[in-house]
Amino acid sequence: MSTPSPTKSSPPGVEPIATNPSPAGFSNTFLDNLVSTVEKLQSTVQNLEQQLKTQGILIDLLRQENEAHEADKLELEKKVQDWITRLTTYNVESLNDRMEEYEDRLNDQEDLLNDCMDECEGRLNDLEDNLGKLSVNTRSRLDGCETRLNNHEIRLDGHEAPLDGHQNRVDDYQARADDQQIRLEDYEEELDKLNVDTTSRLGDHEDRMDDHEARLGGHEASLDDDEKEANTLGLTTRSLLNDYRNHLDEYETRLNEYDEALDMMGLEKFDGRWEKKEDTRE
Fold first, then answer.
1. Region labeled Disordered — which residues (predicted)?
2. Is residue 280 classed as helix, strand or coil in its secondary structure?
3. C-alpha atoms less than 13 angstroms from C-alpha of 221 in its C-beta half-sphere
């Protein structure tokens, strides 16, 4: 006659096993409870498998999203590096080239203005020399005419000869003296015109120099605006990079949490399915 085994505590949700044995060793109540417990365990196993599948799908989606963000991050870093290279090249090389170009043009304008000034000064000096010589010659000839007229007057006073011939000669000398005076006035008028033309040309050159300086100031202001825009673009790009890095750190943290949860549950993925790890401990 067999002795009954000691009573064990039943798991939660499972009715205690009856102690009266059946003819086969188990009571009908025990068998019914055992079948019910097995069905509940099977249902629980199916629910766990479904949850594992769902978690696996979520992990795959997170990894795909992480890979997409990694690709976006690389593309954005490439664009940022390209912009930095372009802006650096533009700010240094282009600015130096344009400044050298404007300096060359200003030097050319200054050389042209100096040449015009030298030419005008040379022409003025030549005119002054010619006018001085003409004035001296004219005065000398007028003095000679006056001397000759005085001599003729003395001779006329001493002689009571007809004065018609002498008067004609005096008129001729006077006419020639008037012509010399007119030529002298023409030279003075030409000199005045040359002075006015030179002053006008100098004013035009000064206006052109002022215009070039104003245009150079406008270009410098435009370069300052381009530099400000480049700095703004760099700050915006850095802000976007920081946002992407924060998102990536958040996704990596969540992936690590999922991996730790799977490790705690003792699961690993085989052929697309999540299964319990084999216990390799002895």
1. 1-25
2. coil
3. 6
For 92-125, what is each residue's pLDDT tens digit? 666 677 778 878 888 888 888 888 888 878 888 8
Query: What region does 17 belong to: left with phi over 0, alpha with psi -120 to 50, or beta?
Result: beta
- Min mean pLDDT across 21-35, 117-131, 239-253 is at 21-35
pLDDT at 61: 84
Alpha helices in 95-163 (DSSP H): 95-158
Q: Measuring CA to CA, how many Å separate 204 from each of 193, 199, 200, 211?
A: 16, 9, 6, 10
Across the strands, what pairs with 274? 269
| The pairing of beta strand 273-276 with beta strand 267-270 | antiparallel
Q: What is the pTM (predicted TM-score) of this model?
A: 0.24
| CA atoms within 13 A of residue 218's CA, in its CB half-sphere | 6
Paired with 3 in beta bridges are none
| Angle (CA) 188 190 192, round 5° | 70
Residues sharing a CB contact under 8 Å with residue 109, sequence separation 6 or more, in sequence order = 205, 208, 209, 212
Amino acid letter, residue 88: T
SS3 of 58-110: the string is HHHHHHHHHHHHHHHHHHHHHHHHHHHHHHHHHHHHHHHHHHHHHHHHHHHHH
Tokens of 155: 């001779």
CA separation (Å) from 262 to 21, 58, 148, 185, 276?
43, 13, 137, 115, 9
